[in-house]
Amino acid sequence: MPVSEGGQEQGIIALPPRLAAAVTDASAAVSHNLHGQKLGRKGRITRERILAATIELVENSDEPVTLGAVARAVGLGMTSLYNYFTDLTELLLAVLEPVMGTAQEDYFALVRPYWADDELGPASMTFVRSYHDFWSRHTGLLHLRNSMADQFDIRIMHQRVNSTRPLIGLMVAQMDPRGVLGDTAVLMATTLMTGIERSITLATDRRLHRVLGTLPGRREESLLEINARLIELAIRDTRERARARAEG
Predict the structure, then answer these.
(1) Are 41 and 105 found together in one domain?
(2) Has residue 243 been placed in a domain?
(3) Domain interval for residue 115
């Protein structure tokens, strides 16, 4: 019983269909609760509703997200909630799994094919726009993740690094597909994606928008164009260096 558009359960706002499907799949993959009891259909649905409620609270509420708030949104007692998650970090990691799963289709898929030299500009812009849109859709969750990582929550730090590392690897493959430059290409891709993520993080931060005002549409478009240009230049320059190294 996925929590998707067209149907709500106990006050939980419906999720977009693709995210709802990812949440359902993530819950279906869990066979037992924390006490080792096998999850039947009812248990899997309850876990699914917990994940969906957490997403909605993180994205649509300015109040701190707590296990108690999630329990109230789902209509569970705390004892029941603890059957599924021991703390907020564990719950957020469970939520991030399906959310980041949708990133595979949203922007990872755009970087996997090799971008021809004469397509670097349009391909970079398509990627940046998709990456920005992903952050905009999940701004509350991703900003909360980064905030907790900055506070040295080790489990969240690992999630953040592990979710970014494959993207950096794909950028390295765009820059230096034969691995001629070694760590130079890795450092270039890491620096590039760190900077782009940081700029998009600021552009999609709801708190900054409230304090400073929303970026006018043209300024936000300019930010995307600048990020796309940086990707294009970094890939083009690194490819030229790799070719020169290979020929030398």
Answers:
(1) no
(2) yes
(3) 88-247
Q: Are 174 and 236 in contact (CB under 8 A)?
A: no
Q: Tens-of-pLDDT digits for all 248 residues of the chain?
A: 444 433 334 444 578 888 888 898 888 889 989 989 899 999 999 999 999 999 999 998 878 899 999 999 999 999 999 999 999 999 999 999 999 999 999 999 999 999 999 999 999 999 999 999 999 999 999 999 999 999 999 999 999 999 999 999 999 999 999 999 999 999 999 999 999 999 999 888 877 666 666 555 567 889 999 999 999 999 999 999 999 999 97
Q: How far is CA 154 from CA 84, 146, 148, 160, 198, in A?
A: 20, 12, 9, 10, 20
3-state secondary structure 155-200: HHHHHHHHHHHHHHHHHHHHHCCCCCCCHHHHHHHHHHHHHHHHHH
Say if residues 195 and 230 touch (Cβ distance below 8 Å): yes
Domain boundary among 30, 53, 81: 81
Residue 33 lies in a domain: yes
Global pTM value: 0.88
